[in-house]
Amino acid sequence: MSASSELVMVLSIGLALAFVVVWSAWLQRGSGITAKDPLADASFDFQESWLSTFTGLIAILGTISISSFAFISSGSGTGTSFTILSLFFALLVAGGPLAFKALASANGTGTVGGFLLAAAATLWAAFGVIFSLGMFLLEIGTQVEGGFEGGEPGLATFLMMAIIVILIPMIASYAHSKLTSMLKGRKAFGGVSFL
Q1: Cα(189)–Cα(185) distance, rounded to whole angstroms?
Q2: SS3 for 82?
Q3: CA angle 112, 115, 120 (to 5 degrees)
């Protein structure tokens, strides 16, 4: 599989999963909740918005780690491609709250739809970072340990891949429960924090 097809796959799967989680939460909303409903108190807090913080941190650390590996390996440039992808996901995390504010009304009040767009951007970045890290680990496992394609993977590669597989449903479950609890009724709109 070429580097460009791997990147398209990471982007597509991450976007699809983000859409499914947000759409599923939207379908479970309380009666009378619309995308245009005001949501004035949405905020970003490092302690409350742990998925955004986690994703941004992993994207930045991944960019640094992957770019250093790209210089060391004599591969096909996949490390450089994943570095750019990690930067894209870091920008996507930062762009979510910015999109919420940009889509706000003239008086600065955001909407439920804008919040869901920001949540989808954060989830796309979270899933994308996890999948791109997994794809990169597969490449490292193949080059360094002879894993997966060339034989048995090393223990470190196997454990990291297991953690990645476990993180996907955990991220989806956390985001879905947070979004559905917010969308149950207008009383839950007060004091909402980003994912």
Answers
A1: 7
A2: helix
A3: 125
Q: Who wins on pLDDT, 75 or 23? A: 23
Structure tokens given for 94: 């930062």
Top pLDDT among 62 and 22 is at 22
Say if residues 92 and 125 touch (Cβ distance below 8 Å).
yes
Phi, psi (deg, nearest 5) at residue 44? -110, 125
How large is the greatest C-alpha to C-alpha distance in the chain, in angstroms? Answer: 61
Which pTM was predicted? Answer: 0.80
pLDDT value of residue 53:
65
158 closest CA partner among 170, 141, 171: 141
